[in-house]
Amino acid sequence: MHKLLLSLMIALKLSFVPTTTAAEFHGVSLSYITGEVDADRLKAHADSQMVPERLVYGIAWMETRSGITGNKARGQGIVDSLGVHHCREIGRMQLNPCINWQRLLKDYRCSLRRIKASYDDNVYCGIKNMLRLNLKYGGWRYVPLHYNGAAIYQDGVESYLGHIVMKELS
Asked: What sign has the CA pseudo-torsion 127, 129, 132, 138?
């Protein structure tokens, strides 16, 4: 029932505002453990699509670190020989605007207009892309490499996840 309500809230673009007690791990807030100001919202989106929340934390961290900029973050994109930036990634999950996410993910929420304008749509579509990559490459462990396309990115996600585990243990 909770997941259905959350899915409905996300579909209707209603903001997810945590209750007075944020999600916790053994009495410690997720934001403290992950270092991400929006950890509760990332978890809600991950849970709604049944994607491992730690994977979402790792990729979100690699894309825009703590998330303090919300959906305003812009990536470097592709720099041509004149130094002009093209296809600068958008939002919390740094989605490439030169990809037709709506068509690729077969979801109206992933239109360019929506991933630019809405934090929740940006995160939703980034996580939906993770789900697509999992199915395409045969496992969650391959998602970070294909989300960004670089082995060093995969290493960064794994290092960050190790940091979370160590904080949980302390």
From this structure: negative
Nearest-angstrom CA–CA distance, 135 and 113 = 26
**124-143 mean pLDDT:** 98
Output the CA torsion sign for 41, 163, 129, 117.
positive
Token pair, residue 142, equals 């391959």
What letter represents residue 105's amino acid? L
Smallest CA-to-CA distance from 89 within 102, 103, 99 is with 99
Closest listed residue to residue 45, CA positions, set 76, 67, 72, 25: 67
Neighbours of 42 (CB within 10 A): 26
**Partners of 78 in the β-ladder:** 86
Mean pLDDT of the chain: 88
Assigned token pair, 111: 């239109």
The band of 14, judged by pLDDT with boundaries at 50, 70 and 90, is very low
Asked if 79 and 69 touch (Cβ cutoff 8 Å), the reply is: no
Phi, psi of 20 (to 5 degrees): -60, -25
